[in-house]
């Protein structure tokens, strides 16, 4: 454990006051291996039991006196406030690896000691949150002093205090709008850098992202604090004049294919604005084009979301302010940086002749943020520790993916500083501990209270020199994973998946609600997004899962496996070497059968006349019952006000009956892990398709939960959606969900996403022939080997009166809502709704799996409307 000097280490100090006793402090330990650390921890625990008067800060200083430089290979840090917290963390350390997360305990062995200090990485707008600086302003002189210096620097430009806004003080402006967010965020980032440096962690280089480049310039000495404040104040004020005219969209696609897509379909309306990492790109431009892109990407199953900025930075939108900005920034007096400066403007180390003058900052604001290229350049130069200096991590996952693609992920440590709602000294000390365990060298003496006391804490010099010092390297996560594997081995695969899904949910809540959710487990089918996971907490959950299982996971694991159940299934496959299949067992995928027959192995439907199953449909037909009835009264339609037998009056209809579904609005959102807010925003066609898909699989004797990860395709015909016309996009109850809830292409994607299906997902709209074409495409995909199982059919629900009024205007409807095909008294057609889906499989596979075959498709056709 900690190094042993030749003499006894002791510290004399006064008992801590109640207030200071509650302040978090670190105990820093190191040993030759995990065995030595555990033995030392057990002995230290015994010493604490014998000396109940020892105060935590005194013990922490005594431990530092036992330290050597460099520390021994296996490291541990305990961060706690009082004796009870330290005792719990020390007991967990002494007991050895566990899949339980112990608050305040960080342990491990550096993969590779970083050469020199870390790279300080400063993000752009996005990581801010209300009150983010409140705790550190009250507890850290280094942080508070720098915040006050930033206030002074902004004084010529602002009539309010950035420190007040960062602490959410009474009367301070809220964090809304670039002209407030950017000055406040700049101040917090510069002050966090000062806090790291005060703790002995000094940067070996700096790297900035958009706004973050200004903070990087000040920390590197390339700009004075006054010049940095000038840049941020004036360019954020200029950007605020463009608010509301554009949007930015984050897309999980590589930059080049996305750039080609934009050039083909959007021309100059949208551009690639930010290249964060491989497959992590941000698009910027016109607001309507951004909405259109979101719909197109959703149709293709590509994860994308609007970035909450409210303007189109790094796009042609900025051209309108560049001339003024260039003149306003002319007084800048940039200097050569005293540290290597990796530029996201150039994508590499700053050229010695380059100056961070007005022209540079205009290029920064207008051009593409080449953060991925700049990160690669820093890694290529040998930097192995990247510390994100921000109130919440937003770039950590991008940096990890960049390191992974560069082949150096195992040796690179990416470190966050604060996290949303964790902005105090405890979180910062935890960050110091994480960096230390990864190979960093903080000055721990700076974080302990001054000593001047008659109370003595004495630690024997042999405390950490015992057995285990030379023990071979052991990975605590790997040991925990082995223990977990043994506990689960006796269970069947399905039980293992269920157990792991429950554990993943529990671990996620531990990260999202530290100290509040012990033992609580969310619905395993509820998405991580609904639980409140963002890019920063996604990495923390990934790390927590790895700690408990020993499974190495991609930085994007939580997005790749979007529910606890999906991630649990992935873990089960990794831990036990299994792979899911949709049949009773795993088999080799048979070769494509271009002409083979296709079996119908399951069916699901909802039709007028109260039909809720294939059996009920057969009963209705066999009995010759009429399924046509009055117009529905549960959809908010003004039936009496809009009905008019005079076909010539616009906006009215003359058909009083039709084939309408009962309870079209009914939906069990909780069953599918969908929040009530999102369910309310979803077109009923999406809801019905989900429920009927599940019923179709059940009808075929197929466990839908076992299809996750399988090559199952979804082909659904759907009519144009009109549900969103009845919703107010500004309503907070549905805001954020209307776009995906009312896009036709999402009908198939929603089913695939909810059930975890990984075959093609295609929504078809060829009017009356949509279901025919969907069935044809599904059969062709099965024959070509594009999927092994397919869901095919169609859904129609009329949420509004548009179809009734339009067809009435054309005189195409039968007044009584009934079709009389080929009859002499035929007078139009009747509108009707429903959903019908069939589960399809190659007949040879269906026979092999022992399915019940309800019918065989030997040929299909497409439309020519």
Explain this structure.
- This is Acyltransferase domain-containing protein.
- It comes from Streptomyces radicis.
- Keywords: Acyltransferase, Antibiotic biosynthesis, Multifunctional enzyme, Phosphopantetheine, Phosphoprotein, Transferase.
- Residues 595-865 form the Ketosynthase family 3 (KS3) domain.
- The chain has 865 residues and is an alpha/beta fold.
- It has five domains: 9-110 and 440-459, 2-Layer Sandwich (Alpha-Beta Plaits), CATH 3.30.70; 119-241 and 318-415, Malonyl-Coenzyme A Acyl Carrier Protein, domain 2, CATH 3.40.366; 246-308, Alpha-Beta Plaits (2-Layer Sandwich); 476-576, Non-ribosomal Peptide Synthetase Peptidyl Carrier Protein, Chain A (Orthogonal Bundle), CATH 1.10.1200.10; 598-857, Peroxisomal Thiolase, Chain A, domain 1, CATH 3.40.47.
- The protein is built from 32 helices and 23 strands.
- The strands form six sheets. The protein has a six-stranded mixed β-sheet, with helices on both faces. It has a six-stranded mixed β-sheet with strand order 20-19-21-22-16-23, sandwiched between helices. A four-stranded antiparallel β-sheet has the order 8-9-7-10.
- A hairpin with a 2-residue loop joins strand 8 (270-277) and strand 9.
- Helix 8 packs parallel to helix 9, helix 19 (493-512) packs across helix 21 and helix 27 (684-699) crosses helix 29 (746-755).
- The longest helix is centred in the first third of the chain and has 21 residues, at 178-198.
- The termini are far apart.
- The model is unreliable at 1-22, 466-474 and 579-592 (pLDDT under 50).
């Amino acid at each position: 454990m900690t190094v042993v000097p030749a003499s006894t280490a002791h510290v004399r100090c006064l008992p801590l006051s109640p207030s200071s006793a509650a302040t978090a402090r670190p105990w820093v330990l190191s040993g030759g291996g995990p065995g030595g650390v555990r033995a030392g921890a057990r002995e230290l625990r015994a010493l604490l039991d014998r000396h109940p008067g020892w105060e935590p800060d005194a013990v922490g200083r005594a431990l530092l006196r036992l330290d050597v430089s460099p520390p021994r290979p296996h490291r541990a840090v305990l961060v706690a406030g009082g004796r009870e917290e330290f005792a719990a963390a020390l007991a967990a350390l002494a007991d050895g690896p566990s899949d339980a997360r112990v608050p305040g305990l960080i342990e491990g062995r550096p993969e590779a000691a970083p050469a020199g200090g870390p790279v300080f990485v400063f993000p752009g707008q996005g990581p801010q949150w209300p009150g983010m600086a409140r705790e550190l302003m009250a507890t850290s002189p280094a942080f508070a002093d720098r915040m006050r210096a930033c206030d002074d620097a902004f004084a010529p430009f602002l009539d309010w205090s950035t420190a007040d806004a960062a602490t959410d003080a009474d009367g301070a402006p809220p964090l809304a709008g670039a002209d407030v967010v950017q000055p406040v965020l700049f101040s917090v980032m510069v002050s966090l850098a000062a806090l790291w440096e005060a703790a002995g962690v000094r940067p070996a280089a700096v790297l900035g992202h958009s706004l973050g480049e200004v903070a990087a310039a000040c920390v590197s000495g390339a700009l004075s604090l006054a010049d940095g404040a000038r840049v941020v104040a004036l360019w954020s004020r200029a950007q605020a004049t463009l608010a509301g005219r554009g949007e930015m969209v984050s897309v999980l696609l590589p930059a080049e294919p996305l750039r080609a897509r934009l050039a083909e379909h959007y021309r100059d309306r949208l551009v690639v604005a930010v290249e964060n990492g491989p497959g992590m790109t941000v698009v910027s431009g016109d607001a309507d084009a951004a909405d259109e892109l979101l719909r197109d990407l959703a149709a293709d199953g590509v994860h994308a979301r609007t970035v909450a900025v409210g303007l189109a930075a790094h796009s042609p939108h900025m051209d309108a302010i560049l001339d003024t900005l260039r003149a306003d920034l002319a007084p800048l007096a940039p200097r050569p940086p005293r540290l290597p400066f990796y530029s996201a403007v150039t994508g590499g180390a700053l050229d010695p002749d380059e100056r961070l003058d007005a022209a540079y900052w205009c290029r920064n604001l207008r051009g593409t943020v080449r953060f991925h290229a700049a990160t690669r350049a820093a890694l290529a130069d040998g930097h192995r520790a990247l510390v994100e200096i921000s109130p919440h991590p937003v770039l950590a996952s991008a940096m990890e993916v960049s390191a992974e693609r560069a082949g150096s992920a195992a040796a690179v440590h990416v470190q966050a500083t604060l996290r949303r709602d964790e902005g105090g000294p405890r979180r910062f000390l935890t960050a110091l501990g994480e960096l230390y365990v990864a190979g960093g060298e903080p000055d721990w003496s700076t974080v302990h209270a001054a000593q001047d006391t008659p109370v003595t804490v004495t630690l024997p010099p042999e405390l950490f020199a015992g057995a285990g010092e030379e023990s071979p390297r052991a990975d605590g996560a790997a040991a925990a994973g082995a223990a977990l594997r043994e506990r689960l081995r006796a269970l069947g695969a399905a039980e293992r998946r269920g157990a792991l899904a429950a554990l993943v949910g529990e671990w996620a809540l531990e990260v999202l609600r530290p100290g509040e959710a012990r033992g609580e487990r969310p619905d395993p089918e509820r998405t991580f997004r609904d639980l409140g996971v963002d890019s920063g907490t996604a990495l923390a959950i990934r790390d927590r899962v790895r700690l408990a299982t020993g499974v190495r996971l991609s930085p994007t694991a939580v997005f790749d496996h979007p529910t606890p159940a999906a991630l649990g299934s992935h873990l089960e496959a990794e831990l036990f070497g299994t792979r899911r299949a949709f049949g009773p067992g795993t088999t080799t995928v048979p070769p494509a059968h271009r002409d083979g027959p296709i079996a119908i192995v399951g069916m699901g439907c909802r039709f007028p006349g109260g039909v809720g199953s294939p059996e009920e449909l057969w009963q209705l037909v066999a009995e010759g019952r009429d399924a046509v009835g009055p117009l529905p009264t549960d959809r908010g339609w003004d039936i009496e006000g809009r009905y008019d037998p005079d076909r010539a009056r616009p906006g009215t209809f003359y058909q009083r009956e039709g084939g309408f579904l009962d309870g079209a609005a009914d939906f069990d959102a909780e069953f599918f892990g969908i929040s009530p807010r999102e369910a309310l925003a979803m077109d009923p066609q999406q809801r019905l398709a989900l429920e009927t898909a599940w019923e179709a699989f059940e009808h075929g004797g197929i466990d839908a939960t076992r299809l996750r990860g399988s090559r199952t395709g979804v082909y659904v015909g759907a009519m144009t959606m009109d549900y969103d016309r009845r919703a107010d996009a500004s309503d907070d109850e549905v805001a954020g969900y209307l776009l995906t809830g009312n896009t036709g292409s999402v009908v198939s994607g929603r089913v695939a996403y909810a059930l975890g299906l990984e075959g093609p997902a295609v929504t078809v709209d060829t009017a009356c022939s949509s279901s025919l074409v969907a069935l044809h495409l599904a059969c062709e995909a099965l024959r070509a080997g594009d999927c092994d199982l397919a869901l095919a059919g169609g859904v129609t629900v009329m949420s509004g009166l548009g179809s009734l009024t339009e067809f009435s205007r054309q005189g195409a409807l039968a007044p009584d809502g009934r079709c009389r095909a080929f009859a002499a008294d035929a007078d139009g057609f009747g509108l009707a709704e429903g959903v019908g889906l069939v589960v399809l499989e190659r007949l040879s596979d269906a026979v092999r799996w022992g399915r019940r075959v309800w019918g065989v498709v030997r040929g299909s056709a497409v439309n020519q409307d």
